[in-house]
Amino acid sequence: MSDKVVVEVGKNYVRVVVGSIKGDYIYPVKWHEKNFNDPVIKEDTKVDDVFLQIQLREIFKGKEFPKNNVRVVLCGISNILIREIEVPIVKENQMYSLIRNEAKQYFPINLNNYVLDYKQLKVVSEGNTKKQKVLMVGVQRQIIEGLINAFRNAGIKIGKIDIEPNSVVNLLKLEKNIRGDDQTAPFLVANISRNGVSISVASEGKLLITKLFPIIQLEEMFSEKEGNEYEFSVIEDTIAESILKFYDFLRTREESIREVNKLYLTGEVCQHIDVSYIIQKRLNIEVELLGELKCVKSSKIQRGEILTYIAGISGIV
Questions:
Q1: Contacts of 253 (CB under 8 A, 6+ apart)
Q2: 19, 29 contact by CB (below 8 A)
Q3: How many Å is the Cα radius of gyration of the chain?
Q4: Which Pfam family is one of this chain's hits (predicted)?
Q5: N or C: less crowded end of the chain, CB within 10 Å?
Q6: How many CB atoms lie within 10 A of CB 127?
């Protein structure tokens, strides 16, 4: 088992997780977090690549983390483009142009400012014709280019860049497989962090829809500013309302994802705030806090650390 290095990049922090995967089990061996007063990701549109480069150099040198084939998980971005589309089955070298042309129908913006990627969800038949359902994702080009520049100038080779919602869904696919749960049943997962509430719906182990609800009080909770006071009941209600809004949105979607009956809660905020009761009271849905994962094997990592490092751990998958 060779160790994989995952760097989680948030708006004002960096987390690194080192570990390996064997079968359906993840073995974390090292993890580290560094928080910043200044933002790494600015205005959801660009990365301060010089600042990030300096921080990465210090972290990797001080902790002696490997620098090759590093995986990056991008967190806390609210303006991700995501859409399930149906397109003809074409050759791989024709897919990007096809996806880009289809995206123009749904997003009236300059797509030159975005890096697009896609993942096939399934193949469907319409009479004698086969088509494919594809999940298209777009991230601001300046963010991707800023990440690449920062890592390259820090002497770190990127092997893969992913977004936190997709990475966490992949982890839950692993967990559900170990538990023997139904992989075809759609489910919700809410990663509640200083970035806000990142909530996604997945089915058959694949991300379908995701949205980030920024909550300024959560960001302030983790800042080093003194004098901030919080009414946790208000924050709980705001988190719950974000989840309820997303759930209501799903009721307008196709039948295959309307019948969601399970919500997983995770993220660093879940160490301090538990909205399980509020959600269960207002929705007819099972809620589970992912404080422990059967797929994560380590005697050193604690419950709170699993919640905090969930995105980094998921990047090992």
A1: 209
A2: yes
A3: 19
A4: PilM_2
A5: N
A6: 5
Please, are residues 165 and 239 in contact by the beta-carbon 8 Å criterion?
no
Q: How far apart are CA 293 and CA 172, in angstroms?
A: 9
Question: Among 74, 75, 70, which residue's Cα sits nearest to residue 158?
Answer: 70
| DSSP symbols for the chain | ---EEEEEE-SSEEEEEEEEEETTEEEEEEEEEEE-SS-SEETTTEE-HHHHHHHHHHHHHHHT---SSEEEEE---S--EEEEEEEE---HHHHHHHHHHHHHHH--S-GGGEEEEEEEEEEEEETTEEEEEEEEEEEEHHHHHHHHHHHHHTT--EEEEEEHHHHHHHHHHHHHHHHT--SSS-EEEEEEETTEEEEEEEETTEEEEEEEE--HHHHHHTS--TT----HHHHHHHHHHHHHHHHHHHTTS-HHHH---EEEEESGGGGT---HHHHHHHSS-EEEE-S--TTB--SS--HHHHHHTHHHHHTT-
Measured distance CA(16)–CA(311) in Å, rounded: 10
Helices 49-63, 141-153: axis angle to 10 degrees equals 40
| pTM summary value | 0.91
What is the pLDDT tens value at each position of the chain, 317 positions in all? Answer: 689 999 999 999 999 999 999 999 999 999 999 999 889 999 889 999 999 999 999 999 999 999 999 999 999 988 899 988 889 888 888 999 999 998 898 898 899 999 999 988 888 887 788 899 899 999 999 999 999 999 999 999 999 999 999 999 999 999 999 999 988 888 999 999 998 999 999 988 899 999 999 998 888 888 765 556 667 888 999 999 999 999 988 877 765 566 788 999 999 999 888 899 889 888 888 999 998 899 999 888 888 899 999 999 999 99
CB 163, CB 79: distance < 8 Å: no
